[in-house]
Amino acid sequence: MSSSIPSRSLRARRLALPGIALLSAVALAGCSGTSDAATPTETAAADDVFSQELHDLLPESIQESGVISFGALWETPPVIGADINDPDTPVGIAPDLVALMAPILGVDAEWMNMQWPAQLPGVQAGTVDALFGQVSITAEREQSIVDLVPFQKSSHSLLLPAGNPEDIEKIADMCGMTIAVPVGSNQSATVQAISDAECAADPIQMAEYQGATSAVQALRAGTVDAWFDTTSAQEAVVAADPDVFTSVVIPESEMPTQFGGIAVSKDAPGLSEALAGALKILIEDGSYDAIYEEYGVSSQAITVDELIINPMTGTAPGEVAAS
């Protein structure tokens, strides 16, 4: 199912956390089959933002189709969630940014709701052109799996029962407890390393979940003692249900602030460069900061100086590091 949605939609729509992946594409830019023809003013505005230089960087297949497909799990607001009134429509920071980037590149944008374990294999296999939502930037990924375009900075937090009855301040305080983590995630490696170093006599247990919805439900039911995710996502859960949940920011000593990245196959370096170029335009014209301010997470915004493809290793787009 495809439909057009406007940008910067926080006040217009409320977020929902879907229980399952919908695996449906939703066009963000351009017209649907039932849309009215663009007015001359709209056409002029589109011409004003379009960049031929960036469009020419796009892979030939995207130039011919006129569409870039994006994948994410629609369960981590404010970055991306599902419209509470239309679960086939994604809303949040990522869809709002893409809605502004698409006309710069002269394309439409489609979204697919994808469970986390399928995301990196999916972009490598061409199921979607890019991932925009849950991918943390790591040196290993930059050098071997995908090219990564930073779009925000993220700290991480533990979601806990309201009142924090166990007085948890950091992961090392959870020896003998169970932490919910995303399947195959950086969070898993972080918890394992801390457990090995600090909890040898009483290890931290981990329970892997496909996404936030099931993990939050497990915490609510008491099946796990905490859920490990980005601070912005945890704060959204607490805001929606403050009588049930609270959150604690994980100290930098346990998990430093990371960049969230737009992930692109190394077979499409031009797409990485085009997306980075469009994002640079939004940062420079103030549109990017306005979106982050609207969602109340300005501290997570990046600067133009931080907008470097593969920022941790400097690996050139399309290149794989020698083993």
UniProtKB/TrEMBL annotation:
SUPFAM superfamilies linked to this entry: Periplasmic binding protein-like II
Record flagged with keyword Signal: yes
Protein keywords: Signal
InterPro entries linked: Solute-binding_3/MltF_N
Residues in the signal sequence: 1-29
Ribonucleoprotein recorded as keyword: no
Domain Solute-binding protein family 3/N-terminal stretches: 67-299
Domain of life per record: Bacteria
Protein name per UniProt: Basic amino acid ABC transporter substrate-binding protein
UniProt source species: Herbiconiux moechotypicola
Lineage, broadest ranks: Bacteria, Bacillati, Actinomycetota, Actinomycetes, Micrococcales
